[in-house]
TrEMBL record:
<dbReference type="InterPro" id="IPR000555">
    <property type="entry name" value="JAMM/MPN+_dom"/>
</dbReference>
<protein>
    <submittedName>
        <fullName>Unannotated protein</fullName>
    </submittedName>
</protein>
<dbReference type="InterPro" id="IPR037518">
    <property type="entry name" value="MPN"/>
</dbReference>
<dbReference type="InterPro" id="IPR028090">
    <property type="entry name" value="JAB_dom_prok"/>
</dbReference>
<keyword id="KW-0862">Zinc</keyword>
<feature type="domain" description="MPN">
    <location>
        <begin position="2"/>
        <end position="126"/>
    </location>
</feature>
<keyword id="KW-0645">Protease</keyword>
<keyword id="KW-0479">Metal-binding</keyword>
<dbReference type="InterPro" id="IPR051929">
    <property type="entry name" value="VirAsm_ModProt"/>
</dbReference>
<keyword id="KW-0378">Hydrolase</keyword>
<dbReference type="GO" id="GO:0008270">
    <property type="term" value="F:zinc ion binding"/>
</dbReference>
<dbReference type="GO" id="GO:0008235">
    <property type="term" value="F:metalloexopeptidase activity"/>
</dbReference>
<dbReference type="Pfam" id="PF14464">
    <property type="entry name" value="Prok-JAB"/>
</dbReference>
<dbReference type="GO" id="GO:0006508">
    <property type="term" value="P:proteolysis"/>
</dbReference>
<keyword id="KW-0482">Metalloprotease</keyword>
Length: 138
């Protein structure tokens, strides 16, 4: 189960809407070993694509060094889907490299950049196996 604050959910959704029609992506870091998502880190989609996201390698390297210095780890790795449901694509599954992370997907397909309904789902992806999990707002 992913336990996450409504403020962090709002920040993810806002980022997804702002970047629409391109996919948005980012990380929420938390103290190592706690599983608590605390620090919102929006990233730039280096692919600048409505169907694919890619972290810039230099930005990602910098982020991991920063998290290491702060004794943090990636608790949530998120991205948006702009035209499809909030479910991991084959590409998303193949790129999932953090077995301890929650993979959050937000779909902005219904409203784009506007307020309104959105899909927000969380998954565990380990060795190519996808398991949806409950999201509990705290």
């Amino acid at each position: 189960m992913l336990e996450i604050s409504s403020d962090l959910v709002d920040q993810i959704v806002r980022h997804a809407r702002t970047d629409h029609p391109d996919e948005a992506c980012g990380v929420i870091a938390g103290p190592v070993g706690t599983g608590r998502p605390e620090r919102f880190i929006p990233m730039i989609n280096a692919a600048r694509s409505p169907t694919f996201y890619e972290f810039d390698s230099a930005d990602l390297f910098k982020l991991y060094r920063e998290m290491d210095d702060l004794d943090e780890e990636p608790v949530v790795i998120y991205h948006s889907h702009t035209a499809t449901e909030a479910f991991p694509s084959r590409t998303d599954i193949s790129l999932a490299s953090e077995p301890g992370a929650h993979y959050v997907l937000v779909s902005t397909r219904q409203t784009g950049q506007d307020d309104g309904p959105y899909e927000f789902r969380s998954f565990r992806i380990v060795n190519g196996e996808v398991a949806e999990e409950t999201v509990k707002l705290i």
